[in-house]
Amino acid sequence: MHASQGRSAGLGLALASAFAFGGSGVAAKPLIEAGLDPLHVVWLRVAGAALVMLPVAWRHRDLLRRKPGLLVGFGLLAVAGVQAFYFASISRIPVGVALLVEYLAPALVLGWVRFVQRRPVTRAAALGVVLAVGGLACVVQIWSGLSFDLLGLLLALAAACCQVGYFVLSDQGADEAEPADPLGVIAYGLLIGALVLTVVARPWGMDTGVLAGRADLDGTSVPAWLLLGWIVLIATVLAYVTGVVSVRRLSSQVAGVVACLEAVVATVLAWVLLGEHLEAPQLIGGALVLVGAFIAQSTAPKAPSGGPVAGSDGEGGDGGAGAPGAGREEELSGGRTTP
């Protein structure tokens, strides 16, 4: 009975996390359109969340000595890199499209495994890659000569590559007996990300007057500070914390499946609140991207081994804690580095 209640609570937390993460781009885009530079919005998000998480960082200060490489990698790639490229991309292309491009990350990790590490992958993993790439071709409507801004698509792809970099980094030492506390990693990742973004974004040049004004949500005027509060407190702090707790109550695999709803939530919210409508082929393509990402993520081992990725054909992909590093990543940050 208690186990069932725990799983139900974990599922609810995972759904809350997916909803919170999915709303980040929808809240950020009106601020960007109101006059804030995308990098300034990212800096406000990360710095604000870092301040909220300072007590957690202090509690886990031993991580600075034990896991400095992991903390730097999380801060540089999973926090600063992913979010900076994502927010820059949504300033040029629809929110749902940008997030779906990021879901190529598990497929890209398998490409790393096959062509850089020169390790074989299973047919199931290859199928996942094909589905994800084919779905993305539908999302960007490649038959019409890429109807979306090419730079925006490249920025979203750069965000996916940052995820890949973190997955690969986190896979190193994944078998250590004393794992890092995920909340501590998140807290220090936000702090390090904020420091890096301070240098890159130079927030002292920010037009702070935008935050005192109002932003437009598809014809509805809302206070800019309210959107910023959502981004910091809900789409970052609450999203990460509920994601971590949900993994502990469920499993990294189940929470990872629920995390795929983030792209669905982002697409629906962008449709309703921003008027960013996707056509039927794009919606079908988006579904293929998510299915392909799930297959690719669930058919790779946590750490390098001598055999094919996810075992031999005909066996279940139960080694699947995600793409290399993905199982560890889910333990660290609730299954995501996505915004």
Protein architecture, described:
With 339 residues, the chain is mostly helical. The protein is 70% helix and 2% strand. The chain is built from 17 helices and 2 strands. It has helices spanning 2-22, 24-33, 38-52, 54-59, 63-66, 68-90, 95-102, 105-116, 123-139, 150-171, 182-201, 209-212, 224-249, 252-259, 261-274, 280-297, 326-333; strands at 214-217, 220-223. It has a two-stranded antiparallel sheet. Strand 1 and strand 2 form a beta hairpin. The radius of gyration is 19 Å and the shape is globular. The protein starts with a helix and ends in a 6-residue tail after the last helix. The model is unreliable at 301-335 (pLDDT under 50).
Layout: helices, strands, pairs:
Elements: H1 2-22, H2 24-33, H3 38-52, H4 54-59, H5 63-66, H6 68-90, H7 95-102, H8 105-116, H9 123-139, H10 150-171, H11 182-201, H12 209-212, E1 214-217, E2 220-223, H13 224-249, H14 252-259, H15 261-274, H16 280-297, H17 326-333
Helix pairs in contact: 1-13, 1-15, 2-13, 2-15, 3-6, 3-11, 3-13, 6-10, 6-11, 7-10, 7-15, 8-9, 8-10, 8-16, 9-16, 13-14, 13-17
